[in-house]
Amino acid sequence: MDTFLAFGAGLSFLLAISEFIRKDNGQKTIGFFFLSLSIVQFHLYLELSNQLKEQLWFAEVHIPFLFFTGPLAYLYFRRLGGLPAKALNIVHFVPGFAAFLFLLPFVLSDPNSKLEYVNVFPPRNIYFQFLFGLLVLGTISNLVYPLLLIGKIRKWKSFVQKEEGRAFSPFLVLFYASIFVIFLFVVAQIFFMPLFVVAAAALTLIVCSVFLSASVSPELIVSFEKTAKEAGYNETRLQGLDVDAVIQKMEELMRDKKLYLDEELTLPILSEELKIKTHQLSEILNDKMKIGFREYITGFRLEEASKMLREEPQRSVLSVIYAAGFKSKSAFHKLFQEKYGSSPGEYRSSFSKRS
Q1: pTM (2 decimals)?
Q2: Average confidence (pLDDT) over 79-106
Q3: Is 293 exposed, middle or buried (0-12, 13-18, 19+ CB in 10 A)?
């Protein structure tokens, strides 16, 4: 097991180096993530192999990096999604820098003090108690970022087609697995230390899975980036709109005012009625309702035509066609046949026989 943990730490370090040597500056974020992760994993290796007592210079050095791993992963995936960097991003790293300052007296202390911290649990010294609390807090903080990413990806999925949304699935699995492993670490640190080995091994397995996935299917990241940017773009176009309220108002306009009966009805005219921009209405129809404007309006017109055919037997089929908002007789017959499985005349006859 010790060898496996050491392998995981080394693999994370190699992944960090591979990202740093790339020309793309955007990859530096994920490089720092893997570097932070390798430091955390190396500390786990020293701790579980009982070598930490011999390498006291490294004791608890990983605590600030615990606070860095979550924000680095979060900002990396935000960047993949084309979300702009914000000055506020630095706030995510304040806890890590604060942890470093809090840890500094311990790093500079004599080996005997460090040995006491490593050997005595629970710690008796008040400073050591705060140090242990910081360790637990750093672990717990990493639960926040996978949850934020899961929420963001689930939101992105609603702005792309179902087939395209599958590009997010491997990453959702990764984030759920990360949450499970972090939860194991928290439980181990506070309640049941034997779980610590299981959690450390599971973390190494995740790193190995990431490495293998990147090696075997490098297009996963490319596909994620492309889909995330498309979803982010679509989300931005609808930003500030109460989409559900717009959809409800549009349904009311169709049901109550029967705007679809106007054969000159267009996307710009409908968007003006809704008091939103044309591109916003297009995005709502295509990305939220998964239907095109023409298809949406045609559905109402066909329902109206079928109602007229049933309830107004004296009206001619041609009159029904134009009264329902259709311009073309041939187009109407084709669409009606597709929806109801019979011609307008046959449809009307079937209801006449029933009565």
Answers
A1: 0.66
A2: 79
A3: middle
